[in-house]
Design a protein that fits this description.
There is one protein chain. Helices cover 32% and strands 24% of the residues. It contains 16 helices and 21 strands. The strands form 5 sheets. Strands 1, 2, 3, 4, 5, 6 and 16 form a 7-stranded mixed beta sheet that branches. Strands 17-18-21-20-19 form a 5-stranded antiparallel beta sheet, with helices on both faces. Strand 20 and strand 21 form a beta hairpin.
């Protein structure tokens, strides 16, 4: 094989994060030759700068918070967290930012790995350095997203943190300003406040976690404040400067806040600006619009899976799309897939529309699937929200003293199925899959009465929700 050689594959995947890896896994399982191109680490954002390191940072935080709710254990965990030990465990989960194991896994499934920057060079063609890869059936873009920084003058000189720096830092800043109110902002505020930072959270909008039910953000903000963080809503950032190591933030109200580091968690943009979209008539830097088989609109060979299609910017949802896309590519290669397939078939990413689950690993946790009440009403459904205080469940009292939380199910009154479910409280992340099954499976409320929750667990909240729906 020479450096200038053109090599043909059935499928070429741009991006070797968890989404691209799953596409390759499915196409190789179908017997299609597959090349994977990656310019950074195999395993992508999730493995090294997002899901895994952030949750590794948060797990000791949540475990200590749970322990402090239990008499007999509370006294044993009053000291500070060992930040070095927390970071060391986080480093282990990232493989110290090496990807040998992930590369070995790709080789094990029979996919060929090309390290370097991959660019489209026309239909079904990808260049990597001096090599040209052609695809008989499909090119799949799985290049993910990058953090977006606001257009503040001189911000580059401030050297702000994004999610990457926050999840990979080896030190705890004495003072940390977090700009944003979404998942990254709330999780990293939770982690660093517990690790010893004095955290200030600046949110432009009315509250935190604005894509969930309003009470989710309210309960998380209350807990952050009780932990010692300064949470300011309705607050814009007008300027940021750094001098002698100190960051100075000036807000729209004229307040000056000093910190050692500042984290901007203010949005994501697709990594499509330099992958050759212009060579196939698409706009560089754009989100890629796809159908439910993840095929890019207007093409019969280009697919986009994961964050780049802007359907659901979540690792688990991207991996779901990857499984769908891999199955669709294989079926089309075999001539067995026709357009207009069953929307709940193996070839349609139907769950992206109204059945997306998510867990925010704050204290308390916030977990939701499907539509919020406002989203369901906006979609035109005739719905009713049913709310239950989580502390009314026996399992909550056993979980820990002073348990605070809330549950909501959004019931479609015409079809008598669930359009959405939200839980907020310690440990509720493990409840969300039951809700996902109920929403995705369109399980009738009358049938849910026969799904008896075990006593005394947090899952008994399902019984309380059904009772509240029946009695009100």
């Amino acid at each position: 094989m020479t450096e200038s050689e053109t090599i043909a594959y059935d499928v070429v995947v741009l991006g070797a994060g968890p989404v691209g890896e799953n596409v390759a896994d499915r196409t190789r399982a179908a017997g299609l030759t597959t090349a994977v191109v990656e310019s950074e680490l195999i395993g992508g954002e999730c493995s090294y700068w997002a899901c895994m390191p952030s949750k590794a940072l948060l797990r000791p935080v949540i475990a200590r918070a749970d322990a402090r709710r239990l008499p007999g254990l509370r006294q044993a965990v009053q000291g500070p967290l060992d930040a070095d030990a927390v970071f060391a465990r986080r480093n282990w989960f990232t493989g110290d930012w090496t990807d040998d194991g992930q590369a070995d896994w790709l080789a094990g499934i029979g996919a060929d790995l090309y390290r370097g920057h991959g660019r489209l060079a026309g239909p079904r063609t990808v260049t990597v350095g001096d090599r040209t890869l052609t695809a008989r059936h499909a090119v799949v873009v799985s290049t993910g997203t990058r953090a977006v920084l606001p257009p503040l003058p001189g911000l580059a000189e401030v050297r702000p943190w994004t999610s990457r720096e926050a999840t990979s830092s080896q030190t705890v800043p004495g003072r940390l300003v977090v700009v944003g109110g979404g998942v990254v902002a709330t999780e990293m505020a939770t982690a660093y406040q517990a690790l010893g930072s004095r955290v200030t959270v600046l949110v432009r909008g009315k509250g935190l976690l604005n894509r969930m039910e309003p009470f989710a953000g309210e309960l998380v903000a209350e807990a952050l404040t009780e932990a010692g963080a300064d949470v300011r809503t309705g607050t814009s950032v007008e300027s940021v400067t750094r001098a002698d190591g100190t960051v100075t933030v000036v807000t729209g109200a004229g307040d000056r806040i000093e910190a050692d580091e500042i984290l901007f968690a203010t949005g994501r943009a697709p990594r499509t600006d330099d992958i050759g979209l212009d060579t196939i008539g698409l706009e560089p830097g754009s989100w890629l619009t796809v159908d439910d088989s993840l095929r890019v609109t207007g093409t019969d060979w280009l697919y986009a899976t994961g964050d780049v299609n802007h359907r659901a910017l979540l690792t688990h949802q991207g991996k779901y799309q990857a499984r769908i896309a891999g199955a669709a590519i294989a079926a089309r290669a075999a001539g067995t897939l026709l357009d207009g397939a069953d929307p709940w078939s193996a070839h349609a990413a139907t769950a992206d529309h109204e059945t997306v689950p998510q867990v925010v690993f704050t204290d308390p946790e916030a977990a939701a699937v499907g539509l919020s009440l406002a989203e369901a009403e906006q979609a035109g459904y005739r719905v009713r929200a049913v709310d239950v205080d989580m502390s009314s469940v026996s399992g909550a009292g056993l979980y820990g003293e002073g348990y605070k939380g809330r549950a909501r199910m959004v019931v479609d009154l015409e079809e008598e199925i669930l359009r959405g479910v939200t839980f907020v409280g310690a440990g509720v992340g493990e409840l969300i899959h039951s809700a996902t099954i109920a929403v995705a499976g369109r399980v009738p409320v009358s049938r849910l009465w026969h799904a008896v929750p075990s006593y005394p667990t947090l899952s008994e909240v399902w019984l309380r929700l059904l009772e509240a729906f029946r009695d009100n």
